[in-house]
Amino acid sequence: MSLRIVVTVKYVPDATGDRHFADDLTVDRDDVDGLLSELDEYAVEQALQISENSGDDVEITVLTVGPEDAKDALRKALSMGADKAIHVEDDDIHGTDAIGTSLVLAKAIEKAGYDLVISGMASTDGTMGVVPALLAERLGVPQVTLLSEVSVEDGTVKGRRDGDAASENLEASLPAVVSVTDQSGEARYPSFKGIMAAKKKPVESWDLSDLDIDAEEVGLEGAWTTVDGAAERPARTAGTIVKDEGEGGKQLAEFLAGQKFI
Amino acid sequence: MAEVLVYVDHVDGAVRKPTLELLTLARRIGEPVAVALGNGAGDTAAALAEHGAVKVLTHEAAEYADYLVVPKVDALQAAVEAVSPAAVLVPSSAEGKEIAARLALRLGSGIITDAVDLEAGDEGPVATQSVFAASFTTKSRVSKGTPVITVKPNSAAVEAAPAAGSVEALDVSFSAQATGTKVTGRTPRESTGRPELTEAAIVVSGGRGVNGAENFAIIEALADSLGAAVGASRAAVDAGWYPHTNQVGQTGKSVSPQLYIANGISGAIQHRAGMQTSKTIVAVNKDAEAPIFDLVDYGVVGDLFDVVPALTEEIKTRKG
Fold first, then answer.
1. The whole model's pTM is what?
2. What does the pLDDT look like over B167-199, one tens digit per residue?
3. Taking every annotated instance into account, which residue ranges of this chain make up the domain Electron transfer flavoprotein alpha/beta-subunit N-terminal (chain B) (predicted)?
4. Cα separation of A101 and A133, whole Å?
5. Is B186 on the interface with A (CB under 8 A)?
């Protein structure tokens, strides 16, 4: 038996940078450094752990859709221990929404071949958290999402999903789409050996024609939602700051009473 | 007037507050028709009618509890086909967003998630979203198909608006995918008696400065004096001091209460992403340079172990 895992990852603008919009109301990627979305590191980690705990032959492919720089996200995942990478890059993809992104990812996943897809719970830029569910819908396979624990055995994926009202134990047959939360287990740091090995690992580049996708289906033109405006949130007016010299608690209570919270 | 479908989030017939808020927003764009699924679905009708639902479509089946997400998508799709609504509104919970996404794809419709406000527009509903850790506000609309929009808790006031609320059984046939992911066990979360974090009017949070699980008792005591929910920063959760379900921030819950009190939290961008839209922000921190003080309406530079108990005492005294 062999197990083919495809891990979807995203190259995102660094959240600690000064993020803003370009003129076409897409995210301006030029002014802020990019990196592998932190939440996707957990997906790579779980793929590696499934591989390490499996008696089977496991192949881990990392897949991203994004501009040239997005290769950095793939290199990071390869240096953590993934086996190979696929980069879908095409000028027509600029401005694609979540629905369109799920189309490109689904076509690439089908072309690559898979038994299990693993994604992070959300990207750290858009933070919608809908792509794993969209992939399951498009691929027609079970979604086993938002897992804080995941395991694969004998063609079955099991996991625990911690919701607001309850913790649920889930189970589905492969092939399936899994997403994992930041509670699934700390992601490993790439070792020096891993970083060196990553340089030799294969990175395939595909464009829309490789995936039989028309340009009209993606990009800003193909998006099913439209952003009409973006405005910077007005700076908060400077608040009152006091130093506690024994009365800080009382002063704060006074403020809360003035605001009718008490 | 166009009908607007509202997906009902309920626990055994008890409707959760974000759904009632959606009914307020739905009335701005049409006539609310609620869709309640699963055990106790019929029991939701009175509360929904009181808040403006002209009709309540219900369907009870074991599939909703026994399998993940897809049975609910099948049912909402059946409701859309029956009603042809002007929009579908879903509460922005983790599950709500997954349901909405799959529904939108099936309908060939665009989706907007995590709206914080909603208005009628010339070309369909216009949603306001708060992005980049709430540093920008965007206005968006769905440009293809039936708009599917998820809305964050606390985005609108709950308003009484009595309506007919007539109950009709929804006809649902489940898809082949519906039984793909089995729920093999369920452990209900123990109730703390405190309000739900995302729905609370006041949230009191603790971070690294709380310095130990046992010290969260003073954060809880302050929360209880105000009838508030308790939140925690990622640092406090990663240290094992408080459960992940209470985490406020980018990878936890995003909250938008009337009052947010951050104790021993420095205010890293990841935390700010989850609380920056709070109406009034208060912080207690030893470090006068902590970035959280850039956000506050009122800040106390001081030791939370002195300030927080004193505040709790003062609140109790004032409340008598």
1. 0.94
2. 999 999 999 999 999 999 999 988 889 999 999
3. 4-183
4. 12
5. yes
